[in-house]
Amino acid sequence: MGPSRVGKTSLIVSLIEDAPRVLAGKTAVLRAHDQQTAGAVERRLNELRGAVRAGSFRRQALRGTEQAAYYKLALETGIAGVAVYLNVLDFPGGWLSPEPGTHRPEGKWQECREFITRSTVLLVPVDATVLMSASDPEHERAIPALLKITQVEQVAEEWATARAYEPGQPALLLLVPMKCESYFNDNGGSVDESKRLFEKVEKAYDRVLEVVRMNAPSHTQLLYCPLDTLGCVELSGRETWVPDGDGLQLSAEFLVRPPGEIAVKGAEEILIAVCRNIAEARRAEQQELADEIEGRSVELEEELRRKRTFRERLRRRLSGEQRELGDTYRIIQNRAVRNRRRQEHFEKLVDDLASRPLGPRIREL
Prior knowledge:
The chain is an alpha+beta fold. It has helices at residues 8-22, 35-54, 106-118, 128-133, 137-147, 149-164, 194-204, 206-215, 267-305, 310-319, 321-354; strands at residues 29-32, 56-58, 69-76, 83-90, 121-127, 172-178, 221-224, 233-235, 240-244, 247-251, 253-256, 363-364. The longest helix has 39 residues, at 267-305.
């Protein structure tokens, strides 16, 4: 959730681009689960690679999202029936607050809001360049409008309130500053402004965090996860603020650092945080299913062992009722065994990721 061109689509692409490194040595892969997702990811990845090949690009060069889209990702193990499916909603940032003369399809927007309130994870990309390039009060005044912070706050409040109605479900909000390559020195950069970036993000989104804390359940986790979308770029130092209607717009150019190879950083921590969220939800779901199977198995076993009169036993044999009961009992037992095996494979996949420590960039809010 964020304004236009903040990097919502690029965030999803970064997860997929960095997945082979994160999952190296594992049997799992993260891939697009349908053709629509695969096509959208390939298009954005080609845009990012083209920008790198060109040697430089401007902040607004990448196309913004023009319609709502559901990105369907699968973390697969190669074992039938054992996978994690992630449905990620991306929508035009302009829908948060339509400009005069523009049209927002209210039906589609309502669908987006309903999806958001059902989601256990809320990703909030943040344009780090806008925050860090604000050097005087006039620039600072433009930030809330540029980042649509009031609108983000309203949707975050709806999400948090909906999570409170599902106290048994996990809840995770990730503040994800994008395009952070120029502010860290741990991925090819020469300057470390990470402390100032965190302070700027925390100050800009303090009200968003406050309303989530007030409305979400107590176990809700809030994380700060800065992301290097490309890793091999940095600001040229020629950032300028230009008039745009009644406000200002930031114009910034990024230069590609040699050798010009994309090096995403920060996506691993996002994937770890999401896997922890999934593991918690899945464990509760699987335990509920296991309890249901166990309860049914006990009922059937008691029914099979119940003492009956000779006449009743004969009637049940002749009618096939006793055989049917035994077949049902064996099916339930087999189902329990399959469920345990699936759970073991699932936990091996997800728990390995979920147990990894979060990197030094990550902060709990």
